[in-house]
Write a structure and sequence with these properties.
The protein is of the alpha/beta class. It has helices at residues 4-9, 17-21, 30-33, 57-60, 98-110, 118-126, 145-158, 180-187, 203-211, 214-236, 251-260, 292-298, 304-307, 310-313, and strands at 76-82, 84-86, 95-97, 114-115, 134-142, 162-166, 191-195, 241-243, 264-266, 285-286, 326-327, 333-334, 341-344, 357-360, 364-366, 369-371, 376-379, 389-397, 403-412. A hairpin with a 3-residue loop joins strand 14 and strand 15 (364-366). It binds zinc ion.
């Protein structure tokens, strides 16, 4: 339970915040509810833009061979999470340009990353299967029809296996949802089905049940977790993985999931997965339609040997863990040319967006960008970082005027070189 305390507090979602808690509406109008930002200019695969992607496939070719299996502890998996696609509707965190999705799949292909199925992932994590060093697991949440119309043809073209985390109330085929028939067709072409609960509840419903006592809470888990396990099994055959809706996870959920038959559960906390990762709190990068940098962080495997443990385990006192998602993760190891430091305060109550400030050791107060609708805070260091460790401190005020702060630290690779394992 390495990340127990992180996720205990993480009712708190590093992605499409308010609306992420919401089940997808039957007739969603993305322009009415979500913050719409310009589509980022696509990164050419050759990395010829002024600001090259953090890892371009050319750089990846310098990494060791990725075609053969290695001992289990040497493999890292980037789990990608997607939602909805369109080439015409306004993009949002939840909705990506189909053309950008294609570029990302092409990038994975060119970079020589191995896209693995959920079965391979579980056989590696829970069994003895050996995989290549750099793997990607593709997951798509909720059951948007565009997964079938837009993403599926691309995934099929590349021959990539993928996992659909479905919530059973959103399988009607009405509005923008997909039908069970669409799901079955995708199952015949590489899709694994996992549960995303029965009704994709807001955290407040979970909290209300929890406040009402153990019986109410257990009953709700029986319906949302056990019920979806059963129903999805009836519709599509046995399932064994769960994905926390909105990333909302509590210790009671983790404790109860195995009893329903689940063997693994996925969060929305970014980070590479190693073979010691808590299998009921698997890290996952939610790839936003508005920010391609998340994808590039996810498929950047250069920092791996250290991120999995090595250095940080011998590095003294552990970092504090803020009660909200942050990137890079506390205690993790980031490359010296790290392009993004971020935090997500949407799960905190009554935050005044204009009051949020970020301080970074060695840089002082930095001009972090705050998205007032999602309460995401981001700063891109303008320079390569030569400090061995960076401490990030966030401070903010709440609407009652009181001041709050939280901090964490992460390590920085001493050499900006390609790691060899
Ligand atoms: Zn969802």
């Amino acid at each position: 339970m390495r990340y127990f305390f992180t996720t205990l507090w993480i009712a708190l979602i590093p992605c499409a915040w308010a609306q992420y808690f919401e089940p997808p509406p039957i007739n969603p109008d993305p322009s009415s509810e979500v913050s719409v930002r310009p589509v980022p200019a696509p990164q050419p695969a050759g990395g010829k833009s002024e600001q090259p992607a953090p890892n371009d496939p050319a750089a990846v070719t310098e990494l060791p061979d990725n075609s053969s299996p290695v001992p289990r502890e040497k493999t890292r998996v980037a789990v990608l999470g997607y939602h909805n696609f369109s080439d015409t509707k306004p993009v949002s965190e939840m909705l990506m340009r189909t053309s950008e999705f294609r570029q990302q799949m092409e990038y994975i292909h060119k970079a020589g990353l191995r896209v693995i199925s959920m079965k391979e992932f579980l056989d590696w994590r829970l069994g003895n299967l050996q995989l290549p060093p750099r793997c990607v697991l593709i997951t798509l949440d909720d059951g948007w029809r565009s997964v079938y119309t837009d993403a599926f043809p691309i995934l099929k073209e590349y021959g990539y296996p993928f996992t659909l985390f479905l919530y059973t109330k959103y399988l009607s085929g009405r509005g923008d949802s997909m039908t069970p028939e669409m799901v079955r067709e995708m199952q015949a072409h590489g899709a694994t089905i996992g549960s995303h609960s029965t009704s994709h509840l807001y955290p407040r419903f979970w909290k209300r049940a929890q406040a009402a006592g153990d019986k109410a809470y257990n009953d709700l888990m029986d319906v949302e977790m056990g019920g979806s396990f059963k129903r999805l099994g009836e519709l599509f055959g046995p399932i064994n993985t769960y994905c926390y809706p909105g990333g909302y996870v509590t210790p009671q959920m983790i404790e109860r999931l195995p009893g329903y038959g689940f063997v693994a559960a996925f969060t929305v906390i970014p980070g590479k997965v190693d073979c010691t990762e808590d299998v009921f709190q698997v890290h996952r990068y939610m790839v936003f339609g508005t920010d391609s940098s998340i994808f590039h962080h996810a498929v950047d495997f250069r920092q791996l040997s250290s991120a999995a443990g090595g250095d940080r385990k011998n590095a003294g006192a552990p970092s504090p863990v803020p009660p909200f998602p942050v990137y890079p993760l506390p205690n993790s190891v980031a490359p010296s040319d790290i392009s993004l430091i971020s935090a997500q305060l949407s799960g905190m109550t009554n935050v005044e967006p204009n009051s949020i400030q970020m301080q970074v050791s060695g840089f002082g107060r930095v001009p972090a960008k705050v998205d007032s609708s999602t309460l995401s805070v981001q700063w891109s260091p303008p320079l390569r970082i030569y400090l061995p460790r960076l401490t990030v401190r966030l401070s903010w005020k709440t609407t009652d005027g009181s001041s709050h702060s939280a901090e964490w630290f992460f390590y920085v690779e001493s050499e900006p070189q390609i790691q060899s394992s």
